[in-house]
Design goal:
Layout: H1 3-33, H2 47-66, H3 75-98, H4 105-132
Helix pairs in contact: 1-2, 1-4, 3-4
C-alpha cells in the first residue's frame, strides 16, 4: 500500500471512529434529555443506528489499533481501562435496545452510558496525547 493511500485510509478510519462516537453518545444524551417514562428508552428509529455505529466503532477501532507503529509506555494499561468502560457501554446499550417501555432502569442505563462515554473520550484523548508527545516515545 502506498504512503498516500495509507495516510488517507488512516485519516478516514479516524474520522469514521470519532463520528460514530459522536452519533452514539450524542444520541443517547439526547434520548436521556427527552426521556418520557411511559415511552420506550430509545426511539425505534434510533435502534438500527446503535447497531451500525457499534459495528463501525469496532471495525475502525481495530484498524486504528493495529495500524499504530509503536506504543508508548503505559499505553496498554490505559487502553485496557478504556475497553472496560466500552464493554459497560455496550452492555447498557443491549439493555436499552431490549428494554420494555417505562422500566425504571432505562434512565439509569442512559445516564451510565453518558458518564462512561465521557470517560472513554477522556481516556482516548490521553492515549492520543501520549502517542504523539515526543518526550514519551
Amino acid at each position: 500500500m502506498g504512503a498516500t493511500l495509507a495516510a488517507v485510509l488512516g485519516e478516514l478510519m479516524r474520522w469514521l471512529h470519532i463520528s460514530s462516537v459522536v452519533v452514539l453518545i450524542g444520541g443517547v444524551f439526547y434520548a436521556r434529555l427527552a426521556y418520557i417514562p411511559e415511552g420506550p428508552a430509545l426511539s425505534p428509529r434510533f435502534r438500527p443506528v446503535v447497531w451500525v455505529t457499534l459495528v463501525t466503532l469496532i471495525g475502525s477501532g481495530i484498524y486504528n489499533f493495529l495500524s499504530k507503529s509503536s506504543y508508548p509506555p503505559d499505553y496498554h494499561i490505559w487502553f485496557g481501562i478504556k475497553m472496560l468502560f466500552v464493554l459497560h457501554i455496550v452492555a447498557a446499550l443491549l439493555i436499552l435496545t431490549s428494554a420494555r417501555p417505562g422500566e425504571a432502569k432505562n434512565l439509569r442505563s442512559m445516564t451510565g452510558i453518558i458518564i462512561s462515554g465521557a470517560i472513554v473520550i477522556a481516556i482516548s484523548a490521553w492515549l492520543r496525547w501520549i502517542s504523539l508527545h515526543p518526550a514519551l516515545n
